[in-house]
Amino acid sequence: MDKAKLKQxxxxxxxxxxxxxxSLGLPPTAITVLGLVISIYGATVVARGxxxxxxxxxxxxxxCDVLDGQLARRQGAESKFGAFIDSTLDRIxxxxxxxxxxxxxxxxxxxxxxxxxVLVLIALSGSFMISYTRARLEGLGYTCHVGWFxxxxxxxxxxxxxxxxxxxxxxxxxxxxxxxxxTVGQRIYHGWKVTxxxxxxxxxxxxxxxSENPQG
Length: 216
Description:
By secondary structure, the chain is mostly helical.
């Protein structure tokens, strides 16, 4: 199943919840802020050593991530500021969770060393760079929907790592570090191609659009 079909299926599944939220008159930004609050709490849970509980809270964060955009579309409340604040708070949420993971590994007696912390930092940096490369290219007037490890994929890998335990989380960090690095490379290459085509005067250079999912 491709990403478009998966998004459509998830929207249908969450439609009753979206309808309930709309009937309550909740603004989409409230769901976005709620997701951030839950992220910070989930990160503290992870830092204290409760990986499984942290994974469950991350699932709730993922639901908020989908619901805020779906609610905005339902209410006709989509806006550039909404996309901006959503993307910004998502970065803070990611930082919180990775921070919780670092604290978890630093305080574990199982022998996780400096390599593990470096791995987490590479995964975190890659995650931020994925979003930055997209934002920078779109700021220059180009679309950037390329790459294997966009936010949904990163969230799923992180969820599985947390739910399956400490060593699974370690391997999840390896996957995230490698996958994020490759995705950044894919976007840099894409940026090189489109800017080179622009310089050559190509009429087929893609221009920026209002993204349905600005999260990267």
